[in-house]
Write a structure and sequence with these properties.
single chain, 489 residues, alpha+beta, six-stranded mixed beta sheet, elongated, transferase activity, transferase
């Protein structure tokens, strides 16, 4: 009798182990192959109807799953959608996931390897599977302030970041859109909204133009020219640079002119301070011709240009220098050195370039995610600052900082000044050509940081395709207001 009981117990334990193993295998180890099986319609539907974790800013959900009242128990809902569309993206039953909804998919669904025991617990307790929450580094007040600074009829992008940690404080772009229109479970409504969005080619589904848009950077690129010059050993802080009214090229009728709206025309030779204060073109073009294309490209890459692998956590468009393949002629290299021709940069790249100068030459990896928490609010991950690269030496960074302070104190970025605070800055005006009425359109830039002696904030702004006057009104003054707002927090 005892042997029979013992045999029954062994069989029961073996069956339980077999059952547990089968459940564990299907739920956790075979999940990837099952989920990607094109015939697994049930899993596809479950994904779209699941209770994904929220995306949070200052503790409040900007994206969350809510009861839908349909066969799909849950539907994604977005709060202040236009303000955050470029970051959250959207999660659609009909076209998939974009932005952070895609980049943080595994965390939001709770399907990461780290969430294995959470899923086991949910299976055996019968609880609805729920994803983890993702809290962003964004400051909601600064985000709203930056967004409101961009006129609806102009468009543009603003990045505000902490140069010491790489944390993104604000990232906005216009035009924007209502992400709720694409979270619908109604196919006809989705298709109508998608058609309207696709017709607006100035909006990218890939994410905010602050990290997916590529723009000619104009004179903000002169920061890299200056670093290249100082690192070469051929120039120092006391160097006198050639500053002709225009730079001519052998065998060409083309001439590269100096910046027309500053004081460049008053001197035929210039110090670095004067050239940067007035954004003179010919001194920096001359530096590039002296150092050569390879040296200029190497310097640009030390600040992040041509990096195809950057994520934060969404993939960032690749900023490019010189942009053209092969060897450039002198005119092309001179134009590239002042951020024109085929040179392109994202606003995030310009912010990172500036942050490297602010941080003593050390460029930190940009990050948008502050913490990840389980449904019971246990923190499983938090932002750890990461050094991305050493862009330049502390000595070169300090010298460029001094000159950028002079650009604000004595030069054409004076509107970025903040009373009682040393602000380091650089403007940029990249010419794009004439519009239909004969007005020259530009990409208007400002990039800078403060306080210069203990940097806490970097602000980079681009207003594309504007006239010079409009650009001047929208870049440096807005940067001043954002710097004040961050420092007063």
């Amino acid at each position: 009798m005892n042997q029979a009981i013992r045999n029954s117990w062994i069989v029961a334990v073996a069956l339980f182990a077999l059952l547990f193993g089968a459940v564990s295998y299907v739920q956790f180890f075979a999940v990837d192959s099952l989920n990607t099986n094109p015939q697994n319609n049930r899993q596809l539907l479950a994904n779209f109807c699941s209770n994904r974790g929220p995306i949070l800013v200052d503790g409040k959900a900007i994206a969350e799953s809510v009861a839908s009242g349909t066969d799909c128990k849950f539907q994604r809902s977005y709060n202040e959608p236009e303000l955050y569309a470029g970051l959250t993206g959207f999660f659609s039953k009909f076209s998939g996931q974009y932005g952070l909804e895609a980049a943080m998919r595994d965390e939001l669904t709770g399907n990461t390897d780290a969430a294995l025991f959470d899923r086991i617990s949910q299976v055996f307790t019968g609880a609805q599977q729920q994803g983890r929450s993702v809290e962003l580094t964004i400051d909601s007040t600064i985000q709203k302030m930056a967004y409101d600074m961009i006129p609806d009829n102009v468009g543009g992008s603003i990045v505000v970041m902490n140069p010491k940690t790489g944390a993104i404080i604000a990232m906005v772009s216009k035009p924007s859109y209502d992400t709720n229109l694409f979270a619908t479970h109604d196919a006809a409504a989705f298709n109508a909204s998608m058609k309207e969005l696709v017709d607006r080619d100035e909006i990218s589904l890939a994410g905010s133009s602050a990290y997916t848009g590529l723009y000619a950077p104009g004179s903000v690129f002169k920061i890299i020219d200056t670093a290249a010059a100082l690192e070469s050993g051929k120039y120092n802080k006391d160097s006198i640079l050639p500053n002709p009214a225009e730079l001519t090229f052998s065998g060409m009728s083309y001439a590269l002119p100096n910046y027309a709206n500053g004081q460049c025309y008053t001197k035929d030779k210039a110090t670095f301070a004067f050239a940067l204060e007035n954004s003179c073109n010919t001194p920096f073009a001359s530096i590039a011709l002296d150092l050569g294309q390879d040296a200029m490209t190497a310097e640009a890459e030390k600040f992040g240009f041509n990096d195809t692998s950057l994520k934060f956590p969404d993939r960032v468009a690749t900023s490019r220098f010189p942009g053209s393949e092969g060897t450039l002629d002198d005119a092309a290299l001179a134009q590239s050195a002042i951020g024109q021709r085929d040179v392109l940069a994202t606003p995030l790249q310009i912010a990172m370039m500036t942050a490297a100068i602010a941080n003593g030459g050390q460029q930190m990896a940009p990050n948008l995610v502050q913490t990840i928490r389980t449904p019971d609010l246990k923190t499983v991950s938090s932002l750890t600052p990461e050094v991305l690269r050493q862009s330049t030496s502390p000595e070169v960074a300090a010298q460029i900082t001094d000159w950028m302070v002079s650009v604000v104190d004595n030069g054409i970025a004076s509107a970025a000044a903040v009373p009682g605070v040393k602000v380091a800055g650089k403007t940029g005006t990249a010419e794009l050509g004439l519009d239909e009425s004969g007005v020259m359109l530009n990409n208007a830039w400002f990039t800078g940081f403060a306080p210069a002696d203990d940097p806490q904030v970097v602000v980079s702004i681009v207003m594309p395709k504007v006239d010079v006057a409009t650009g001047a009104q929208l870049t440096s003054p807005n940067a001043s207001n954002l710097i004040k707002a961050v420092l007063n927090k």
